[in-house]
Amino acid sequence: MDHKNIKHQDTLCALEAKVNATTKPHKIPIVASSTFQFESIEQGIEIFKHQPGAHVYTRYGNPTIEAVADKIAQLEVFGSDLTGYGLLCSSGMAAIHNVIQTLLEPGSSIITQGNLYGGTTEQFQRIFLKNGIQTISQDLSDLDSLEDALRITRGTKLIYLETPANPTLQCLDIQKIALLAQRYDSKLVVDNTFATPYLQQPLVLGADVVIHSTTKYIHGHGVSTGGAIICKEELLFKQIWETLKLVGTNSNAFDAWLINLGMKTLALRMKAQCDNALYLANKLSTLTQIHKINYPGLPSDPNHAIASKQMKAFGAMLSFEVGSTSEDAIRFANKLKLCTIAPSLGETDSMILHPVTMSHLKVLHETRLKYGITDSLIRLSVGIEHAEDIYNDICQALTP
Ligand SMILES: Cc1ncc(COP(=O)(O)O)c(C=O)c1O
Question: Smallest Cα–Cα separation from 249: which of 130, 36, 57, 97?
Answer without folding.
Answer: 97
